[in-house]
Amino acid sequence: MRNLIARKNLLRKLYLSLSAVLLISHGAHAQDKDMQTLKSETSRSITHDPNDTIPRDWKTGGLYNLTFNQAALSNWAAGGDKSSLSLNTMLNLYAFYLKGKHSWDNSLNLAYGMVNTTSLGMRKSDDQIDFVSKYGYDLGKKWYLSTLLNFRTQFAPGYAYPDNNTRILTSNFLAPAYLVLSEGIDYKPNDNFSFFLSPASARWIIVNNDSLANAAAYGVDSGKHSRFQFGSYASIGYTANLSKTAIYKGRLDLYSDYLHNPQDITLYMTNILAVKVTRIISINFSLTIIYDNDIKSVKSDGGQGGPLPQVQEVLGIGMAYKFDNSGRAKRRMAMGKTGG
Fold first, then answer.
1. How many alpha carbons fall within 13 Å on the CB side of residue 187?
2. How is the chain split into domains, by residue range?
3. pLDDT in tens, 172-227
4. Fold of 58-324
């Protein structure tokens, strides 16, 4: 009997010992597996979704507009030209950068238009190249220390028409061209308004055409192709969202040359009203006003007259296409432009 009890106790100890060994072995195996998993996870290379690495400091985009009109008359009792054809195209591009205290605004505006009628032939109705680049360092409270560069000219020759049979060359590519380099302060309380003021601005007037240069056009000395000016400069840009489908943007530039008649203020003003009719159809109205004491008017006899306000008005209905990288930037598009 005693031997039977002793055998049972021995079997119980062996069972408990075997169970302990199996438990320790299983625990060690599980721990080893966990360590292998941990090592695998920590040694795994980190990868990023490409969509998460798109730079978000830039906001870019633009607007393209094309307007086309055609008319033809045959035995029309009310009278008029037999045919007329007009084409206007406009491209506005922008690239805005904002990171920390640094901002860099760039805009390029291109426009060209032609009108062809039976009686007058082909004439230019619009022509513009306007580039503005402005770097700003945030001083706080919406004030920026800024450097501005503006370049403005046109694509093709332009003429004045004293009568239907006479035309006089008044402009060409780089004749004139205006280059402004300015250091000043910029007040931007929001994306819709900007006021730039500089007491020290360099301005070059370029007339890269021999006949216009010899005629001392645009204020250059006779025979010279450029003129340097140094003075004060101010530029105001404003944008207003009039409705969900209408927007206005305006710009006013003023310049005074310290070196020659500082009381004569050069004025350059643009106004654009855009109304979206459908997804791709829009109505655009633009009004540009220029006054420069160095730009002489053309008399009816072809001679030079005194300086007069220059006014250009363009109304068009046509196709418009807008493109941008919405949602990838840190601030909204500032549609108003500043420059000289």
1. 6
2. 1-46, 58-324
3. 999 999 999 999 999 999 989 999 999 999 999 999 999 999 999 999 999 999 99
4. Outer membrane phospholipase (ompla); Chain C (2.40.230)
Angle at 318 between CA 313 and CA 320, to 5 degrees: 105
User: Could you count the other beta carbons within 10 Å of the beta carbon of residue 209?
Assistant: 19
Residues of the chain with pLDDT under 50: 4, 10-11, 14-16, 18, 20-53, 327-340
CA-based nearest residue to 255, from 263, 246, 247, 244? 263
Cα–Cα distance, 54 to 8 (Å, whole number) = 74
Question: Six-digit token pair at 261?
Answer: 């008649």
Report the mean per-residue pLDDT for the chain. 82
Neighbours of 53 (CB within 10 A): 8
Nearest of 261, 210, 237, 258 to residue 339 by alpha carbon: 237
Q: Which two tokens stand for residue 205?
A: 């007037």
- Rg for the chain, CA atoms, rounded: 36
Torsion-angle region of residue 291: left (phi > 0), alpha (psi -120 to 50) or beta?
A: beta
Burial class (CB in 10 A: 0-12, 13-18, 19+), 25: exposed
Cα 219 to chain centroid distance, Å, stands at 30
What does the chain come to in residues? 340
Q: 240 forms bridges with which residues in the sheet?
A: 248
The predicted structure's pLDDT at residue 9: 56
* Entry pTM: 0.77
Please tell me the predicted confidence (pLDDT) of residue 47.
38
Contact 209, 172 (CB under 8 A): yes
Q: Write out pLDDT tens, residues 86-113.
A: 999 999 999 999 999 999 999 999 999 9
Report the DSSP beta bridge partners of residue 114.
Answer: 87, 124
Residue 292: closest CA among 267, 262, 259, 258: 267
